[in-house]
Specification:
seven-stranded parallel sheet; 7 helices; two-stranded parallel ribbon; Rossmann fold; alpha/beta; about 260 residues; globular
């Protein structure tokens, strides 16, 4: 049995992960900015943790006690063409998705180093490897997270600590149902907003992602990158095979020149 701390556990993937780890018999510490949103979850502890507040993280990690596995899941998203991205909104998104994950990792790493073991699983996305229209801000936070975690895996590996990036494709978690969208006056990119979201055939459930996370936490060896679901594996394989001299568009027969 492992002691598992999960950030962003109030909904979607985080909530499903709490249920999955508990079902497998682990000690689960569920966290969210408002712990009242964790009511009903089968967690051993339900704690307040805001990844943008260092004091909140320190308090939650101290109250949680020994942590074997961190599932760094807290995150947000917005849509905007690059020209329409408010810099302050991007800075906030980086603070949550990337720097927030860094803060959580830094809080649990000393204890893991002292014990000579630990696993950190970071919720990335196929957007950590590709960028598509209107997703540049979110993708930027995940591309940055991928760099941080790859370096961490190299640095902490000799200390007995493993780090990995979980990379699902589109997830039917409801997170994309009411996404903030920034536009320009007389929006020249309006055509992109009419193309709709990913087709249902590419969507996987939060429960599928949670099962993949729990499987990784228990695996004999932790891969650096863990695509979740066939669509993610297929899209990432196509990206790897595509030339780097032009943009890549998932689902297109060829990449298109800019």
């Amino acid at each position: 049995m492992a002691s598992v701390l999960i950030t962003g556990a109030s909904k979607g993937i985080g909530r499903a992960a709490v249920a999955e780890f508990a079902r497998r018999g682990h000690r689960v510490i569920a966290t969210a900015r408002d712990p009242r949103t964790l009511a009903g979850l089968p967690a051993d502890q339900r704690l307040a943790l805001d990844v943008t507040d260092p004091g909140s993280i320190t308090s939650a990690v101290g109250e949680a006690g020994e942590i074997d596995v961190l599932v760094s899941n807290a995150g947000e998203i917005f849509n905007a063409a690059v020209e329409a991205i408010p810099p302050e909104a991007l800075a906030r998104l980086l603070d949550i998705n990337t720097i927030g994950a860094l803060r959580a990792a830094q809080a649990v790493l000393p204890g893991m180093r002292a014990r000579g073991r630990g696993r950190l699983l970071f919720m990335s996305s196929i957007s950590g490897r590709i960028a598509v229209p209107l997703s540049a801000a979110y993708a930027a936070t995940k591309w940055a997270l991928e760099a941080v975690v790859e370096a961490l895996a190299i640095e902490a590996g000799p200390l007995g600590i493993e780090a990995a990036l979980v990379e699902p494709g589109p997830v039917s978690s409801g997170a994309l149902d009411h996404v903030t969208t920034y536009t320009l006056p007389g929006d020249p990119y309006a055509r992109l907003l009419t193309q709709g979201g990913p087709p249902a055939s590419l969507m996987i459930t939060p429960e599928e992602v949670a099962a993949g996370i729990a499987d990784a936490a228990a695996a004999p060896q932790l891969p650096l990158r863990i695509p979740i679901g066939p669509p993610a594996a297929q899209i990432l394989a196509a990206r790897q095979a595509a030339p780097d001299d032009r943009p890549f568009i998932p689902g297109a027969s060829t990449a298109v020149r800019s």
